[in-house]
Amino acid sequence: MSNKTTFLGFDKKGLQKYGSNTIWLLLEKAIRFLTGIWIAPLTASYLGVAQYGKLEYTIGFVFLLTPLASLGIISILTRQLVADKENRFFYFGSAFWLRLLAAIFVILSLNGIGIITPTSIEEVLPFALPSDSTERWLIFILSLNLFFNVSDLVTSHFQAQVRSHFIVKVQIVVILVSAALKLIGIWKEYSVLFFASVLLLETILTAIGLFLMYFKTGEKVKKWKWNTPIAKVMLRDAAPLIFSGIAVSIYMRIDQIMIKQFLGDEASGYYGAAVRISEMWYFLPVVFAGSLFPAIVELQKNNLEKYKKRMQQFFDFLLWSAIAIALPITFLSEWIIVDILPYGEEFLPSAAVLSVHVWAGVFVATGVAGSRWLLAENKQIYNFLQTSLGAILNFVLNWYWLPKYGLLGAAYATVISYFVGSSGLMFFVPALFPLLKMYIKSITFPFRLVKLIYDFLKNRT
Fold first, then answer.
1. How many domains does the chain have?
2. What does the pLDDT look like over 353-374, one tens digit per residue?
3. pLDDT of 17-47, one tens digit each?
4. Do 264 and 403 form a contact (C-beta atoms < 8 A)?
5. Three-state SS string across 191-248, please?
6. Do both 215 and 148 map to the same domain?
7. Domain check: are 305 and 343 in the same one?
């Protein structure tokens, strides 16, 4: 009786385990959201458009190279910790040294190239590393995050055991400490370098906290051992993920890099402020997918019709939840920027960008739903191809539209490329026609809902 199904494919014990895990994750996201929605605008308003633009630009610049430092190994490690528990310490040790060496290489390369890049080259090559001394310091400080991000290995350990509460406890403390330090920085009128240092401190404190939690559970890092055959296998399996990660980073951040180069620091600041608000709720589809999708996949094994029905409902929910968020923000963007959040009149040009860019979130939501369907159907290759196509399109559209249409051109380029990056191939590839069918059916959800209500009322009379 202990294995009896009680809800969405989970027995009672499994429901408690996964439910508790989800609640902890939602708690962390809620606290991050509530602090971020006020601290980010206060920081931007204090620094001013130009300095905030420098910070956003350098964050995006370092983000572009993060996949080269992370090597895509975390996904492989999490999988192997579940599949091959006996060799887990070899996987930990091999992943640790691979990540550490990759991070050091990227940090040295990034800052080494930055030092030797003269102003003349930066003027000729739009994507050369900056010669501005403040930006070089910002890149140096922020690039050190790549070194301390090795603590992701401990995160994968707790995720594999469905014990996210250890991770969340650390992250909540770090979020609150970071928020307090940023407020102190605003009060004491510190420079932009201080705020970059706070971002680095977040990563350092997270790493310390995660390793302390790891030790608290009785685990020991000294058991981690390098194993050459395992390291080779991990690198081989992670290679596609590295390329996919690069595509995703370009897809998500190339617009901010190009805006700075084409339009300058102030434009980067306006755009960065709009993007911060636009992306603030992106965690919701991911959390909902993490909570609901395992049960949907379970139905695939036992009840195919019910699986298809639940998948359609999953798609409907994510699409229309995103539209429900985007629609009011479109019409209230100026009010949100100037009156609700503490950006102030100085950031008024961000409002027009926000009213357009927020619709990219609709395709983020459908992209989450679509990627989960591709995963369930073992068609992940199309996800990589779509993301790569979206990354290329984002670059090309920004290249042509930024000089002509300015920041609105970048916002429209993002929305279009996000649509292509999440769903572009479904119109042309027969294997993805079921996804296209779900997409079209989701668009008609309001009409289906009205019909359902009408039929219900008709039957009552």
1. 2
2. 999 999 999 999 999 888 888 8
3. 556 666 777 788 888 888 988 999 999 999 9
4. no
5. CHHHHHHHHHHHHHHHHHHHHHHHHHCCCCHHHCCCCHHHHHHHHHHHHHHHHHHHHH
6. yes
7. yes
